[in-house]
## 1
Amino acid sequence: MPKSEFLDPAALRAPGEIHFQDIPLNQYNRTVDEEKSNFATEDFLRIYRDMRIIREFETMLLEVKTKGAYRGTAYNNPGPAHLSLGQEASAVGQMYLLGVDDYIFGSHRSHGEILAKGLSAIQKLPENDLMSIMEGFFGGAALKTVQGAQKDSKDLAVDFLLYGALAEIFARENGFNKGLGGSMHAFFLPFGIYPNNAIVGGSATIAMGSALYKRVNNKPGIVVSNVGDASLGCGPVWEALNMGAMD
């Protein structure tokens, strides 16, 4: 505060009250039937498919980590694999309407988030754009590995997504980040999947900065930060919430 502006301590410290406007609480009251009217049968089938893909993907990782094999194929992965089994619905529900212009920043349990966002992007992207992305990514190395008897480029893109994510978790060269990011730092920018974060609440401030960039530069899309409940014990998370709420 400049010295030229006089503040009267007696007035500032006088007894008074602060009044806030009413804050709506627990206002959601739509029924299941009302919500169902927003979706077609094809939507529900794809929602279920996406959840089953994520569940099987993480079940496979669990089998590899605990038994050293998956469906009779032996494999050893000494690296981390923090799972989110049972949380598939939250990941798919969050990502289902998001496109490539919407960015996500994940937590350290983000396999489901990555797959759900990728599956949503695949559904919305034109087939020519999908092929361009897959052919141009690291010279098409991952694409060549998964090309086979897929019916169309959408099915091919699903295999590309699963293979790229799994290869990254297993620290293989064909992974989305050449195996250098691993389970807790994977990303795939063409689908709007930005790095997940091993630090508790670490993505909150990064996502807030990304959203600010979009707003300042009139870029389309929203930004999502995934953090766990323990992150509310971290100061930077509250800083991000407060800065994001500023006019």
## 2
Amino acid sequence: MNIGIIQGRLSPPLEGFQECPRDWKSEFFRLPELNLSHIEWIITKKSFHDNPFFDCELEQYPIYSVCADNLVDDRIDSFEFVDKNLDPICLAAIRNGVKFVTIPLLEESSVEDDNKRNRFKDILKTFVDRYPNLNFSIEAELEPKKLSEILCISDTVYVTYDTGNITSCGFNHEEYIENLFSRISNVHLKDRTREGRTVPPPTGDTNFKLIFDKLKKFNYSNVFTLQTARGTEGQEIETISKHLDILRRINE
């Protein structure tokens, strides 16, 4: 099980709930003790102008993907907005040897509306053509048919499958995996209730046993990334260690 973690979960949330921590290097040093393989880097609106991803040499660090959380905005269908906020991330990803840029189409950046989704597809096609050596992974609260419309743009467009989000959306996990399996590049491990609360595994409504078994059936070999609920501040390592033990036992 190739499992990593979202940036910030191994540090107290001094900079915010999900932000790049000031002492970001310490999280990479902690990966071996938890048998974790990678970190998914986070860039938010708050950190966009001073995030270390843009000016540090990061090629030596195991960064699987950079998540452009700064794109969570209702202007996701505006080329000017996306170009200003995504292009610098793509350039930095190439410089740092990061192969995946994750684009969240969630909440304000939802493209559930057909017209908005079509405008976003045109924008994404521009970036796919501009950066042929980058992979783009879409994390979206969309049913498989609508998400597939975006994947059809290019073979370099993939899916980040967030288990908690799919649960709270009320989608069928088996159908989701069956329809999108060949394009899933990353599985965010998160437990949520059907009402949308993020809770520690396995206390929510996400059926991890079903998910793991279904992924095994299709010989899933890409990464998992832990994005579980935060616990007591200052006890991040203990919290993550507990969540990892639970999920690894379910996956046995």
## 3
Amino acid sequence: MKVGICGIGFMGMIHFLAYKNIPGVEVTAICEQIPERLKGDWRAIKGNFGPQGEMMDLSGIATYDKLEDMLADPNLDMIDICLPPNAHAAATIAALKAGKNVLCEKPISLTTQDADAMMQAAKDSGKLLMIGHVLPFYVDFNFAWQAVQSGRFGKLLGGHFRRVISDPVWLNNFYSMETCGGPMLDLHIHDAHFIRLLFGMPKEVQSIGRLRGDVPEYFDTHFLFDDPNLVVTATSGTIQQQGRPFTHGFEIHFEKATILFESFMGKPITILNEAGEVVTPEIAGLDDIAVFTNELTEATNAVKAGKPSSILDGQLARDALVICYSEIASIQQKKPVAV
């Protein structure tokens, strides 16, 4: 199976490295507008986790500075889009119209209108559209997801989710809703997607937050569902202190147990069970590249089988976008907002 990556920034580099770990899948083309990166000089690339950029051997890989030229390659089975969010829709629609399956990084887009156009293009082309929401592939979040799926701890009662980072000062236009989407669409949308996956679609949100201009910078949200006994909340955003590392965690409540995870304190998955015990299950950890290897394996297996992925589903990604915009409206209007 042959993959072309469009956009070699931090996430494009992570995907490039992750594909190397998937048997039978090969990156045979990349598209990028920075000339140095087409020559393998990725040393300027950096992010808030995982490896930083270095010199890459691109021998045997076709390089393009225009997407339409890469899409003309008849041998490519899937296009992996790692462009800034404001470029997701146009690139995805072009790839689908060219008869390629698509994996697009999250968020699906910056507007629901663009998301709808992307999903319609996939339907018209008969090709798969998948959105790279990676959270369910982290071992801690996957453990919680599998617990919900199996019902091993009884009925799901709710939970709290946390995702906070120091201000990413190295990112241009991070707080632009027209380019990146700020902490809500770049950061919190991970948890919005996971909450949607676990609990279904909320009917209402009530959010309070600190704004940078009109863009939420730091916020708390209560999610209301048809089941009044579901108590679901989330905290997300950025703080000014650069000593804060990337942080995420959760406390998920079931009838028979509570599952805890907190990356900031180095606390692994912990189960508080109905017998009053505190249990730390043995779970093999994954490095940052392996997490994305699992996500991309899910995507490439879906292409091979010709069947959509239930986790990387475009509708789920659109739902997460709708939830986030409802939260923004609640913060700005200072009142609960229907989803």
